[in-house]
Amino acid sequence: MTDDSEHPSGAGRENNIIFLHAETDCDLSFEVKFVKAAPGTGKQAILARYFELQARRKLVESVAVVDEAFAQSPKGLLLDAFLPPEDAGERLYSILGRYPYWVAKHGTRKARFIFASQSLLCVLSFWFDWLMRRFRALRAAGGS
Amino acid sequence: MLPKLEETILLVVLKAGPDATAGGVQAALSDALGKEQSFSAVFTTLDRLSQKRFLTWRKGSPDPQRGGRAPKLYTVTALGQKALRASLKTTQALAADVGLAPAFAGV
């Protein structure tokens, strides 16, 4: 942002106020170094604009990560194969929702491992809970 | 008195407002506790709370980005709120007895 190097479009300093010009302030594919500002705009306003653009750029990047993660997300065959359809659907919806976060935080490889382990735990706990419910019902029926 | 996880999940669902999803509950729990929480524990607890009628749920709209799967949208019932209030009151009273927390006003 405070890079003093001359930008082709004519950025420079004047009276201690940074005048920066970009070809477009919507081009977020590169590090935001030049901010389009009207002559006479204060440094604070330029800085505010800079941080706003940086935030937008990061948002665009994170949306791209989420889109890519969704596109390459696992199919959830384990859940589909071992759970009733309604339960599998809900569980898969939730775990897939968290998957892009794991990709962003840990990378694809570890995210896939977490996805698989969470799915496996879901299947095991579902059937364990199912067995326990049946067991309690049987015991209650036998005791009465 | 409710088990701790049931109490926490009821609080999270209540905080999330009507139509909380299991994913949202897991994310909120993970953020609150600073550690990734297991989906299986969340689902099992949500199922148990639904069986106890402390929660109701309805089917949400399917999301094509997630393979056309639809979420369950959970809402705390009046019975759930009553049980939560009673459970929190007991916890607070016990904590106050040993000088760990002041009595929780309004509960």
Could you explain how this protein is built, in words?
The complex is a heterodimer of chains A (144) and B (107). Chain A has 4 helices and 2 strands, in the order E-E-H-H-H-H. Chain A is mainly alpha-helical and 144 residues long. Chain A has a two-stranded antiparallel ribbon. In chain A, strand 1 and strand 2 form a beta hairpin. In chain A, helix 1 (43-71) packs across helix 3 (85-106). Chain B is 54% helix and 9% strand. Chain B has a two-stranded antiparallel ribbon. In chain B, helix 1 packs across helix 4 (78-97) and helix 2 (22-33) crosses helix 3. Chain B starts with a helix and ends in a 10-residue tail after the last helix. At the A-B interface, helix 3 and helix 4 of A face helix 2 and helix 3 of B.
Q: State Rg of chain A.
A: 27 Å
The succession of helices and strands of chain B, N to C, reads: HHHEEH
List SSEs of chain A in N-to-C order. EEHHHH
User: What is the 3D shape of chain B?
Assistant: elongated
Strand content of chain A: under 5%
Task: Please give a handful of descriptors for the protein shown.
heterodimer, A: 144 residues, mainly alpha, two-stranded antiparallel sheet, elongated, B: 107 residues, 2 strands
Give the topology.
The complex is a heterodimer of chains A (about 140) and B (about 110).
Chain A (H helix, E strand, L loop, with lengths): L11 E3 L2 E3 L23 H29 L5 H6 L2 H22 L1 H36 L1
Antiparallel strand pairs in A: 1-2
Helix pairs in contact in A: 1-3, 3-4
Chain B lengths: L3 H13 L5 H12 L5 H13 L3 E5 L12 E5 L1 H20 L10
Antiparallel strand pairs in B: 1-2
Write a brief caption for the model.
The complex is a heterodimer of chains A (144) and B (107). With 144 residues, chain A is mainly alpha-helical.
